[in-house]
Amino acid sequence: xxxxxxxxxxxxxxxxxxxxxxxxxxxxxxxxxxxxxxxxxxxxxxxxxxxxxxxxxxxxxxxxxxxxxxxxxxxxxxxxxxxxxxxxxxxxxxxxxxxxxxxxxxxxxxxxxxx
Length: 115
Ligand code: 5GP
Ligand code: ZN
Known about the structure:
Layout: H1 4-9, E1 17-20, E2 24-28, E3 36-42, H2 57-73, E4 81-84, E5 100-104
Antiparallel strand pairs: 1-2, 2-3, 3-5, 4-5
The structure holds guanosine-5'-monophosphate (5GP) and zinc ion.
């Protein structure tokens, strides 16, 4: 399958890896939007969250825990970070292999309107 994140997960395309295990791989985004910008990518190809099923619940949980581990490894647990998942066209998704963004290293501002 010609999916760039599957190719990175298989080691066919180079990426700066932060951590990996049998379920997922985390690597630096090629166009970082913040000083720390790491992508958490499951080895299983799922187009996005909308393609996830009940059987993927554990994998989705592992992705969140990997985001925690990346934040710790990159030293941004404090003062904090943001985890983002885009889905579909209006969600701004560009690569249709489900992934989380871990962003930090600068104040990120609010993305939801202040009350
Ligand atoms: P999306 O908009 O789909 O949530 O985010 C896709 C992200 O993947 C973008 O931030 C983009 O910079 C990153 N990206 C796309 N192609 C590559 C690649 O070949 N290598 C790496 N490391 N990141 C990529
Ligand atoms: Zn893929």
